[in-house]
Amino acid sequence: MTVTALASPERGGTGGRPGLFRRNEIGPALVAGAVIFCLILVAVLAAPLIAPADPNLPDLMAVRKPPSAANWFGTDAVGRDLLSRILWGGQVSFLVAGVGMVGSICLGTLMGMLRGFGPGWLHPIVDRIIDIQLAFPYVLLGIAITSVVRPSVPVLILLMVLAGWAAVARVVRAIALQERAKDYVKAAEIIGASRLRIAAFHVFPSVWPSLMVLAAMQMAAMIVFEATLSFLGMGVQPPTASWGGIMLDGKNYITTSWWLTLLPGIAIMMTSLSLVLIGDGLEARAERLRSREADK
Amino acid sequence: MSTPIIEASAITKTFPGRRGGQPFHALRNVSSKLFEGEILGLVGESGSGKTTLSRIMIGIETATTGEVSFQGRPVQSRADWKALRRDVQYVFQDPFTALCPTMRIGAALAEPLAIHRLCPASERPERVARMLEMIGLGPEMARRLPAQLSGGQRQRVSLARALMLEPRVLICDEIVSGLDVSVQAQVLALLVELQRKLGLSLIFISHDLRVIRYLCDRVQVMLLGQIVEEGPAAQVFDAPENDYTRALLAAIPDRDRLPVSESA
User: Fold this and answer.
1) SS3 at position A93
2) Which residues of A are less than 8 Å from B144 in CB distance?
3) CATH code for A90-295?
4) Which of A156, A236, B64, B264 is surrounded by the most beta carbons within 10 Å?
5) Nearest chain B CA: its distance from A92 CA (Å)
6) pLDDT score, position B78
7) Diameter over CA atoms, chain B
8) pLDDT at residue A25 above 80?
9) Model's pTM, two decimal places?
């Protein structure tokens, strides 16, 4: 049978672009987002190497200096180098948002798959837990918890997971239920595959692209959420810097020392913007791959 | 053709009506037998209950009332589900949805072996390659995804996956109706060859009477959830007793070119 020519794997390509770009359909938004995010991430991770000064060392002789050659981002109310504080503070923000994102993706996936493939009596229970979690305003939840427990990095991470998992679970549940109704799942049952095997090997790969999109979007939201909590004083406690905390410190001088709030604000905005770009790019790519598959 | 390998007796299947509507009776008191080594054809229009009956017969759907037994054992209990899944396999109508879109062909074919631990992991690639050869696909197909295959190739892969377990019974649910005619003939020829080689018992579901006539030893004609006529294929086609069967036969296009039609 000579139908192989009809089913060439490179069909439906976009023409001139070579190799990697053509095969993986990486769009400009994805590239731009990834470049910006990686630059920020590398700078933050390399803070111990590239930060020009100790982020917690006050210099009362140089208080609230505007950006200059000596202090690129200026200094804060007690003379600490703002660039160093933003770089070091990024570590806290990234740690909380990053681990929180991974945690919420894992918990959300687990719950969503449990709803899709777990025993029937669990379904309404999982559904109600998701509903309750989604109905609860998570900023309020954050404020409630941090006013009882002294906020620290682990507490904040827990908050991120709580704030994020239900949205993930809802998406995973939707995909799992949609895929479960398809013939290939029935076919897997007929060859004797267990539900766990079907969930892990057959359905999970279909959930994966959406998880990548969610991961980027969640991380963006968590960077902002962590900054919000810190700005409200419910975040990591001083003197440890985090982006929201730096803005809180600068809040009282917003009319005279714009850099104290604007520059960390830009860091937050650029980070979440780059993550949203990545998320959009991944979503567009998944969409293209799906529609190409549907063409066949 | 002596003892029935699968026997369904007095099967009824009722689907509850939606929002207080009338319940739908998919099967009304249907009995059917599949004998060792035969090819049984199930014919009938869409919605006549062919698929439901076959799914109940292999235990992937449960009957509302009635009993199914496999080699004398009842199928209703899920306890020996896994053992049953080795001996009875099913090929789906639509080859575009029956294969997991994210799993490579090689992995899909190796999976039944892994689930039932039929051979050491190291032997799996070899058995996959042998099966690919048997269904007439090259070994390079093992690295492909279903989306990179044509409909006919996918249907062969579905068939191959069912055969990996060396089942005793195979149910083919309209497996060629989604394929174009030249590919249909290839898949059918392959099916007949494999059936003879492996000594399978086969239930072949189709609304295409020419295909049924070509393949089957025995035929059951279904209408509105009941079997209206059954018997050896030649008898049903040459001397139909039921009005519906006659109407079905009369509706075959190019009927005069059928080898059986002279006496009909």
Assistant:
1) helix
2) 9
3) 1.10.3720.10
4) A156
5) 37
6) 61
7) 57
8) no
9) 0.79
Q: Which amino acid is at A46?
A: A
**Ramachandran class of A11: left when φ > 0, alpha when ψ lies in -120 to 50, beta otherwise:** beta
Q: Residues of chain A with pLDDT > 90: what percent?
A: 20
Tens of pLDDT, residues A193-238: 888 889 888 899 889 888 999 999 999 899 888 888 888 878 787 7
Q: How far apart are CA B173 and CA B175, in angstroms?
A: 5
Domain boundaries of chain A, sorted by first residue: 90-295
Q: Which of A221, A240, A42 is nearest to A153 (CA)?
A: A240
Q: What is the pLDDT of residue B262?
A: 41
Beta bridge partners of A81: A75
Structure-block tokens of residue A265: 């604000």
Q: How confident is the model at residue A20 (pLDDT cuts 50, 70, 90)?
A: very low
Which residue spans within A169-292 are E strands per DSSP?
none
Q: Which helix (H) or strand (E) holds B108?
A: helix B105-115
Is residue B16 over pLDDT 70?
yes
Q: Residue holding tokens 């379904």? A: A123
Taking CA atoms, A289 is separated from A25, A26, A209, A217, B108, in Å, by: 8, 11, 10, 20, 21
| Structural contact between residues B91 and B171, judged by C-beta atoms closer than 8 angstroms | yes
For B257, counting Cβ atoms within 10 Å of its Cβ (0-12 exposed, 13-18 middle, 19+ buried), the class is: exposed
- Asked if B100 and A186 touch (Cβ cutoff 8 Å), the reply is no
Q: Are B5 and B72 contacting, i.e. CB atoms less than 8 angstroms apart?
A: no
**B179 Cα to chain A: minimum distance (Å):** 13
Structure tokens that stand for A198 in this block: 């079907």
Q: CA-to-CA distance for B84 and B70, rounded, in angstroms?
A: 8
In CATH, the number for domain B4-96+167-263 is 3.40.50.300
Residues 1 to 20 of A: which have CB under 8 A from any B CB?
1, 3-4, 6-9
Query: What's the pLDDT score for residue A189?
Result: 85
Look at B100 and A8 and tell me if their CB atoms are within 8 Å: no
Question: Is B13 within 8 Å of B56 (Cβ atoms)?
Answer: yes
B34: three-class secondary structure by DSSP:
strand
Largest interatomic CA distance in chain A: 84
Pick the residue of B102, B128, B170 with the most A CBs within 10 A to test the interface with A by mutation.
B102
Which residue in B has a C-alpha nearest to residue A195's C-alpha?
Answer: B115
Mean model confidence pLDDT for chain B: 81
Q: Residue B13 contacts by C-beta under 8 Å, 6 or more apart in sequence? A: B25, B26, B27, B49, B52, B56, B61, B63, B64, B225
Q: Token digits for B181? A: 């005619």
CA distance B237 to B241: 10
